[in-house]
């Protein structure tokens, strides 16, 4: 399971060329959740969650404020949440989550990214059953035993606690995300290396070098699409 945190780390450490892309995707997501509820994180838990996740990606305050102000301004721009599933080289599995204001544009673009890189789109449900929705929370400055004790004191029984690089990573049920964060905050920890809900494959696979190069090109092509917010997969990309 721990290797999936490495995939999140790689996304956080994306090359500079992708930084503005990541910020734009957060701006869109913040706008959507702010418009769907109150544009105030104290009364809109979904917005609070997105803002906390944006903080771990160092999204500038100006981008956050602009998205919230756009929602406050009553913009009539609407987005649909879509999920696509598909296969990459050597039977690798991929889930693509999108936010789009043009459904007729998004599906062909996602299909093309698959097809041009040795993959193909599947039907709904063809891949997702091999993934588990999981809350991932990371902190530094604690040991596994200290984190376990802290969570036990808060009566939280999580899926797993692992040491990965300099961080302690907690894997929990999706509905435990905020409870785990609050347990850390009660212990004086308010900074998180990661705090998000992701899709983790039940089994990772390793691809031969040539197939992995093609797979990474496919993932890059999918992530480069304007409408794509998240891409999940079951390939161990290594360190």
From TrEMBL:
Taxonomic path: Bacteria, Bacillati, Bacillota, Bacilli, Bacillales
Any one GO MF annotation of this record: DNA binding
GO biological process: regulation of DNA-templated transcription
Positions of the TACO1/YebC-like second and third domain: 79-235
Name of the molecule in the record: Probable transcriptional regulatory protein ERL59_12100
Family in the record: Belongs to the TACO1 family. YeeN subfamily.
GO cellular component: cytosol
Taxonomic superkingdom: Bacteria
Domain TACO1/YebC-like N-terminal: 3-74
Keyword Zinc belongs to the record: no
Keywords: Cytoplasm, DNA-binding, Transcription, Transcription regulation
UniProt-annotated location(s): Cytoplasm
Gene3D superfamilies in alphabetical order: 1.10.10.200, 3.30.70.980
Organism: Chengkuizengella marina
Main location: cytoplasm
């Amino acid at each position: 399971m721990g290797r999936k945190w490495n995939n999140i780390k790689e996304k956080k450490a994306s090359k500079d060329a992708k930084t503005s892309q990541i910020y734009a995707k957060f701006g869109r997501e913040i706008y959507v959740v702010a418009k769907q509820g109150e544009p105030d994180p104290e009364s809109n838990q979904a917005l609070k969650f997105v803002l906390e996740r944006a903080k771990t990606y160092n999204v500038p305050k100006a981008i956050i404020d602009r998205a919230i102000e756009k929602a406050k301004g009553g913009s009539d721009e609407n987005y649909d949440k879509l999920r696509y599933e598909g296969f990459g080289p050597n039977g690798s599995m991929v889930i693509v989550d999108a936010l789009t204001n043009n459904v007729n544009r998004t599906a062909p673009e996602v299909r093309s990214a698959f097809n041009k890189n040795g993959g193909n789109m599947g039907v709904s449900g063809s891949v997702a059953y091999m993934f588990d929705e999981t809350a991932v929370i990371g902190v530094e400055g604690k040991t596994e035993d200290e984190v376990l004790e802290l969570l036990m004191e808060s009566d939280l029984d999580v899926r797993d606690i692992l040491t990965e690089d300099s961080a302690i990573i907690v894997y929990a049920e999706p509905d435990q995300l905020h409870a785990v964060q609050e347990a850390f905050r009660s212990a004086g920890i308010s900074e998180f290396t990661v705090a998000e809900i992701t899709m983790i494959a039940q089994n990772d696979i390793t691809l031969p070098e040539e197939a992995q190069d093609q797979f990474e090109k496919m993932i890059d092509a999918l992530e480069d699409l304007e409408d794509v917010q998240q891409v999940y997969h079951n390939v161990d990309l290594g360190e």
